[in-house]
Amino acid sequence: MAITHRKVFHTIFYKAAILGFVALAIVFQSCKSKSGKKTYQSDCDAGISFKRISFTRLIDSIDDYDQKYIEVDGTYEEGKDESALVNDSLFVDHSSERALWINFSQDCPLYLVGTRQGIFEYSDGKFTQLNNKSLTIRGKIDVRHKGHLGSYRGTIERVSFVKL
């Protein structure tokens, strides 16, 4: 009879353990969805096909992408006279010569998907924090405009998508 009680105990233990793992998975999934990435979009370039490119390739061959619509990942840096996208890697040059000026424009207002909350609007007691955030951005490359004091490789203008 002792064997039967042991089997019952093991069965209950395993069922409880499985139920616990399922509960933890649900909790972690709900936490993940709350802290998920935010996507801001504009309708200004709807229907345009964007070329996905690595940051390094874009910087190294920027003239090939002049007046082209691209999608690129990087880290956004903002400050006094600064609105730039730099390489995500910690092991590369982040100077303005290896960065892109980002020209956000009122012509392409960016709204949080599913809402009318603008990326630069005050909401929930704060502004959207972009500084030092990794993001994906879509826009049009312009090599003639090189940002503040002409010190950047080029500009991403007509920004119509930001995922952070």
In brief, what are we looking at here?
The chain has 164 residues and is α+β, with helices and mostly antiparallel strands. It has helices at 2-34, 55-60, and strands spanning 39-41, 51-52, 69-79, 82-86, 100-102, 111-112, 133-142, 155-163. A 5-stranded mixed β-barrel has the order 3-4-5-8-7.
List the helices and strands in order.
Answer: HEEHEEEEEE
Helix content: 10-25%
CATH class of the largest domain: Mainly Beta
Mean pLDDT: 84
Stretches where pLDDT falls below 50 for ≥5 residues? 22-34
Query: How many distinct domains?
Result: 2
- Report the principal-axis shape: elongated
Major sheet: size, sense and barrel closure?
5 strands, mixed, barrel
Write up this protein.
The protein is of the alpha+beta class. The chain has two domains: 1-36; 39-163, Nucleic acid-binding proteins (OB fold (Dihydrolipoamide Acetyltransferase, E2P)). It contains two helices and eight strands. It has helices at residues 2-34, 55-60, and strands at 39-41, 51-52, 69-79, 82-86, 100-102, 111-112, 133-142, 155-163. The protein has a five-stranded mixed β-barrel with strand order 3-4-5-8-7. The longest helix is centred in the first third of the chain and has 33 residues, at 2-34. The protein is elongated. Residues 22-34 have low confidence and may be disordered.
Topology summary:
Layout: H1 2-34, E1 39-41, E2 51-52, H2 55-60, E3 69-79, E4 82-86, E5 100-102, E6 111-112, E7 133-142, E8 155-163
Task: Name some characteristics of this structure.
164 residues; alpha+beta; 2 domains; 2 helices; 8 strands; elongated
